[in-house]
């Protein structure tokens, strides 16, 4: 349990600095029933810095939900299309589009999604974007395809954060990195010679809370990703650790040792109004708000070993949630509040589990896992994984069928946190 709350950090902030190496994505597994969709090259997309259609294909493929079919040629959104021919080739849907340059230098990106079975148009988008935003626009189109064909909002245009550990010449450095959900377009938010962990996104996606030991003690900071400014949220006596945002972004739950043993506290988002939530002689740590913001899930050793408990944000008795396994940590709650993900030490290793909170049914999703984080649509969980002596990130669907691995040659990457939907 000591490892759960002893957090030593040091970081200096370097907003907007590009990270040196991009992340590779490896995909394994598919969903139970894949949707066959043909993706055509966009007309004139060579004028863009990156191929829009290639990014869309990669997004849809790594979701595991789609069987992506190459349309074999470029097809403009204004072209007359024989949808019956694409249906005959096995595609239930078709993505087409075009790219053109505007007088002001921006790119006009247009797309259509066609239903080859019903011979109808399902969706269309037309946006003018700067060349640097070509990738983001492609992610948005992939999101639209995902939502129109599955009924669930896509997460390709969301952002993730993670810690990259660089080793060289006997020295370590640590970067708090913000990137696209596919690991591309990395930006360094914080940098230091000491460890950085526990980043947590604000619900509006503009801030990340984390802990730094640059002042020779663990202190909770909030970094504004838009302005580059940061603020101290908790600098109490002892350890200040494990920040977690409330769903409405007005509060943070923290683990503090100011009273002796580590306990759970709640503060306003600006650090004011601190109040103690748990009150035991043991260790209460790793708090997480429930989906509705009315409860706190946390880890406690009050039963003799670390287990996950739940209690009201207003205080009162705590209810034990996990009973299988003697060591259960790192609770995370799905955005809809229906699923608990956590790390359980069983069978000689640390493994990722998910529980349906209504039925209590558990499912083992991944082995060798730490630090889980739900995607904002609740369909995927990102976690840290150590294989072959190198720490990397991995993603698994909540049904366990689809798995991805994100890795980089530059160093270890860990401590993932999946950002929210952006407005």
Descriptive account of the structure:
This protein is mainly beta and 423 residues long. The protein has 2 domains: 2-23 and 160-418, Neuraminidase (6 Propeller), CATH 2.120.10.30; 34-150, TolB, N-terminal domain (Rossmann fold), CATH 3.40.50.10070. Helices cover 9% and strands 47% of the residues. The chain is built from 4 helices and 31 strands. A 5-stranded antiparallel β-sheet has the order 1-10-9-8-31, with no helix packed on it. The chain has a 5-stranded antiparallel β-sheet with strand order 2-30-29-28-27, with no helix packed on it. Helix 2 crosses helix 4. The longest helix is centred in the middle third of the chain and has 17 residues, at 134-150. The protein is globular. Keywords: Cell cycle, Cell division, Periplasm, Signal.
What key attributes describe this structure?
423 residues; mainly beta; Neuraminidase; Rossmann fold; 2 domains; five-stranded antiparallel beta sheet; 31 strands; disordered N terminus
Rg calc:
23 Å
Can you tell me the CATH topology of the largest domain? Answer: Neuraminidase
Q: What's the main sheet like?
A: 5 strands, antiparallel
Q: For the largest beta sheet, what order do the strands appear in spatially?
A: 1-10-9-8-31
Please give the CATH architecture of the largest domain: 6 Propeller
Q: What CATH first level of the largest domain would be assigned?
A: Mainly Beta
Distance, first to last CA: 38 Å
Q: Which consecutive residue ranges, at least 5 long each, have pLDDT under 50?
A: 1-21
Q: Quote the average pLDDT.
A: 90
Number of helices: 4
Oligomer: single chain
Number of domains: 2
The chain-level structural class is mainly beta
State the shape. Answer: globular
Instruction: Kindly state the number of beta strands.
Output: 31
User: For this structure, what is the CATH homologous superfamily of the largest domain?
Assistant: TolB, C-terminal domain
Instruction: Kindly state the percentage of residues in helix.
Output: under 10%
Q: Quote the beta fraction.
A: over 45%
């Amino acid at each position: 349990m000591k490892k759960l709350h002893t957090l030593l950090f040091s970081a200096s902030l370097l907003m907007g600095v590009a990270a040196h190496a991009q992340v590779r994505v490896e995909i394994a597994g598919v969903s139970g029933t894949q949707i066959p969709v043909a993706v055509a090259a966009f007309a004139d997309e060579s004028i863009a810095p990156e191929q829009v259609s290639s990014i869309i294909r990669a997004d849809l493929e790594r979701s595991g939900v789609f069987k992506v079919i190459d349309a074999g040629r470029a097809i403009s959104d204004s072209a007359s299309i024989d949808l019956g021919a694409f249906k005959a080739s096995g595609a239930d849907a078709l993505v087409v589009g075009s790219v053109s340059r505007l007088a002001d230098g921006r790119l006009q990106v247009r797309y259509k999604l066609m239903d080859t079975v019903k011979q109808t148009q399902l969706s269309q988008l037309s946006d003018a974007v700067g060349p640097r935003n070509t990738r983001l626009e492609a992610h948005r189109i992939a999101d639209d395809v995902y939502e129109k064909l599955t009924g669930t909002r896509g997460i390709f245009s969301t952002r993730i954060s993670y810690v990259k550990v660089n080793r060289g010449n006997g020295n370590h450095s640590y970067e708090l990195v913000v990137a696209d959900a596919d690991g591309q377009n990395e930006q360094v938010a914080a940098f230091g010679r000491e460890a950085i962990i526990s980043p947590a996104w604000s619900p509006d996606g503009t801030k990340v809370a984390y802990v730094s030991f640059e002042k020779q003690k663990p202190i909770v900071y909030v970094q504004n990703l838009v302005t580059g400014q940061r603020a101290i949220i908790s600098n109490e006596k002892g350890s200040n650790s494990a920040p977690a945002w409330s769903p409405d972004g007005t509060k943070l739950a923290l683990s503090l040792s100011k009273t002796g043993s580590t306990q759970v506290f709640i503060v306003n988002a600006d650090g004011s109004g601190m109040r103690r939530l748990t009150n035991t002689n043991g260790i209460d740590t790793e708090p997480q708000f429930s989906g509705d913001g009315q409860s706190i899930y946390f880890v406690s050793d009050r039963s003799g070993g670390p287990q996950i408990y739940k209690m009201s944000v207003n205080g009162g008795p705590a209810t034990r949630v996990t009973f299988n396994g003697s060591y259960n940590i790192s609770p995370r709650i799905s955005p809809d509040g229906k699923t608990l993900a956590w790390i359980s030490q069983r069978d000689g290793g640390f493994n990722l589990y998910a529980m349906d909170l209504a039925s209590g049914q558990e499912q083992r999703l991944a082995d060798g896992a730490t630090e889980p984080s739900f995607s904002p649509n609740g369909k995927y969980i990102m976690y840290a994984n150590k294989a072959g002596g190198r720490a990397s990130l991995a993603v698994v669907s909540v049904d366990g069928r689809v798995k991805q691995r994100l890795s980089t040659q530059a160093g270890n990457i860990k401590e993932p946190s999946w950002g929210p939907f952006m407005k």
